[in-house]
Amino acid sequence: MPTLLNQAIRQFTGCDDLTTAPPGNGLRLGNPAASVVVSLNPSDCTERDLAKQGYTTTRGFLALPSFESPRWLFPLGNGRYRFQGLEIYKPYKLTSRVLKGLLTTMVAARCQRLALPRLLIASRGCWPLEQLVREVTSEPQPVLAFSLGTEARFRKLTAQVMDPEGEILGYIKLPLTNAAVERVRHEAETLNRLWSFPALRPHIPRVLHSGVWGGGAVLFQSAGPPRPGSLQFGHHHEQFLQFLRAVRPTEKPGHVLWEQVASRWAKTEATLDSSWRTLGQAALARAGRELDGVTVPCGVLHGDFAPWNTRVGDEGLYVFDWESASWDAPILWDVFHFKTQVAALLNKKDDRHVPRDRRTGEVASFLLYLLSSACRLLGEDSPALSAGLAFRRELLVKQFEGR
């Protein structure tokens, strides 16, 4: 069984004793003592064969796009949850939306069993993760869909928790790497702190449970509204950021912000080519001049404020994925990040989000944001690394054109 799939199943079943049964063979070629059996593309009789050998809990999933490179595990079954399970995947790119529409059609036509990679997971008792859900939500028959993430260094397993009717009860995060453990813990701590501010509560997840899981960490948080957030920065976004800015407004001397970014850049620039290094040094020099004697408004920063981390409900914007949050960063960086990510990853480029007035320090803050976010992309080994870096470089170059 592929490594990533094996690692994910170990996490959500709470079992290191796995065996893989060949397609259609139940346990006849497997390990009869195994606590958990995984069957890839099982036959119709596999579940019955496993039940005869004492495997009392069985769960079926679609593994997409493949066993070798899994991104999602969608639950199989006859209930409404098989449609709602697809909600863990909310694409923004046109091609991805088309593919999700095709998948939804296949699920509705019940032909996914013939065309898509399936796996059956059988165990001799209840999964610890399902037991956790029962204890937290009192739902006796939870159904789970999974996202396996994309970032190699900070990869996390996210479970969408549903009842049999498909109502989403919340989301659980389980780190799949050591580096991701601190991210999950940080998000739990951030949400608990932010929950003490009543104005933010309609706009952020509530921590239902957090703690240690298998030597790592677990975070179970409430679900938000289903409607995806807009790609265009607008009233809902500004209103939410105003709430966030009111939590802990501070000011930071411009030279302190400059020193923080310069230090980070010095540790990172060696991984970039000479043209990037030259551009970075020019940006730092200009930012240093323009921030001389200037203070920068700071406060709580989401850190990855982007459309795919937002939903829209009756009370406005709902924002999740707080693992990159900080408490004393420039408040404009969330705005810069939102618009830069939309432009870089969805090819919706609009120079109107680039500040022009150097007297306020906003241009200098924007330059430092570009360098800081480039460092972050390099450190995360993100799948969006190439497009993200290229666009940030393009924005930096434009800042020096015509000077």
Strand order of the largest sheet: 1-2-5-3-4-6-7-8-10-9
| Total helical segments | 13
What is the arithmetic mean of pLDDT? 89
Rg (CA only): 23 Å
Range of helix content: 25-40%
Q: Strand portion, in percent? A: 15-25%
Give me the count of strands: 16
Indicate the low-confidence ranges by residue numbers.
none
Largest β sheet strand count, sense and barrel closure: 10 strands, mixed
Global morphology:
elongated
Number of domains: 2
Q: What's the end-to-end separation, in Å?
A: 57 Å
Class per helix and strand makeup: alpha+beta
Order of helices and strands: HEEHEEHHHEHEEEHEEEHEHHEEEEHHH
Write a concise synopsis of the structure shown:
This protein is an alpha+beta fold and 403 residues long. It is built from 13 helices and 16 strands.
Characterize the structure shown.
The protein is an alpha+beta fold and 403 residues long. The chain has two domains: 3-223, no CATH class; 235-400, Aminoglycoside 3'-phosphotransferase, Chain: A, domain 2 (Alpha-Beta Complex). Helices cover 40% and strands 20% of the residues. The protein has 13 helices and 16 strands. It has helices at 3-13, 46-52, 81-84, 94-108, 112-115, 128-137, 178-194, 235-245, 254-268, 274-290, 332-346, 362-380, 385-400, and strands at residues 18-21, 36-40, 57-64, 72-75, 118-123, 143-147, 156-162, 168-175, 207-211, 218-221, 227-228, 250-253, 295-301, 310-313, 316-319, 326-330. A hairpin with a 7-residue loop joins strand 3 and strand 4. Helix 11 (332-346) packs across helix 12 and helix 12 packs antiparallel against helix 13 (385-400). The longest helix has 19 residues, at 362-380. The protein is elongated, with a radius of gyration of 23 Å. 39% of the residues are buried.
